Amino acid sequence: MWDVSAGFPRAAISAIVGPNGSGKSTLLKAALGLVPVESGQVMLLGAPLREARRRVAYVPQREDVDWDFPVTVREVVEMGRYPLRGWVRRLRAEDREAVDEALERVGMAALAGRQIGRLSGGQRQRAFIGRALAQQPELLLLDEPFAGIDARTEEAILEVLSGVRDAGGSVILVHHDLTTVRRIADWALLMNVRTVAEGAPDAALTQEALDRAYGAGAGDAIVGASWAG
């Protein structure tokens, strides 16, 4: 990934799209300091990462998680409070209330005592989104949050993300389904190693821009279709 320059609006759902290997996930990880950056500058919520870190929550791809780790759904969601309290401090009443609220919002309150390895793919994703919500972030970053889940769970998660946006929070997600992006995103970054286009989905995801990102002639095939990447 190189020569990527983009800005994302606040209080909006923004999507990062592009072909497989285009650097979408790497862009998120670079913004969070999880991979080294050779040059350039990252600003989150108008501040450097070291100043904004506690105001930002991240939901990684599911394959990046150790599902055999012996923790319950509630314990996973409680981890969202650790950036605010530290790993060795006991959670306060307000933390427990935030965890309860997050579990309710993602529909996992009834499964709070279940070990995460015993959950379905959609339930696991809800649990980790719950962890992010428990942090009460101003900016929520998600890497392929809809991969491997059923349509019902996808709609439930979309409702949660819309609630974050409507409450004044900002959401940036990596996604490959252009139909969904056009339907739910307020802003889109189309990239393939470098920035190809950005803006409102209808303006950024034109046939010409898609051809440049996916290859000449590809725009006709992928408008309104779903691509892995």
Key attributes of the depicted protein:
single chain, 229 residues, alpha/beta, Rossmann fold, 11 helices, 39% helix, 14% strand, globular, disordered C terminus
Give the % helix.
25-40%
Give the tally of structural domains: 1
Give average pLDDT, whole number.
Answer: 88
Q: What is the count of DSSP helices, taking H or I runs of 4+ residues?
A: 11
Q: Could you spell the SSE succession in H and E letters?
A: EHHEHHHHEHEHEEHHH
| Top-tier CATH class | Alpha Beta
Q: Which regions contain 5 or more consecutive residues with pLDDT less than 50?
A: 219-229
State the strand order across the main sheet.
2-3-4-1-5-6
Strand content: 5-15%
The value of Rg in angstroms is 18 Å
- Euclidean distance between termini CA atoms: 14 Å
Q: Structural class of the helices, strands and pairings?
A: alpha/beta
Summarize the structure.
The protein has about 230 residues and is α/β, with parallel strands linked by helices. It has helices at about 25-30, 50, 75-80, 80-85, 95-105, 120-135, 150-165, 180-185, 200-205, 205-215, 220; strands at about 15, 55-60, 140-145, 170-175, 185-190, 195-200. The chain is about 40% helix and about 15% strand.
Annotate the secondary structure layout.
Layout: E1 13-17, H1 24-31, H2 49-52, E2 56-59, H3 73-78, H4 82-85, H5 93-105, H6 121-134, E3 139-143, H7 151-166, E4 170-174, H8 178-184, E5 187-192, E6 194-199, H9 201-204, H10 207-214, H11 218-222
Parallel strand pairs: 1-4, 1-5, 2-3, 3-4
Antiparallel strand pairs: 5-6
Helix pairs in contact: 5-6
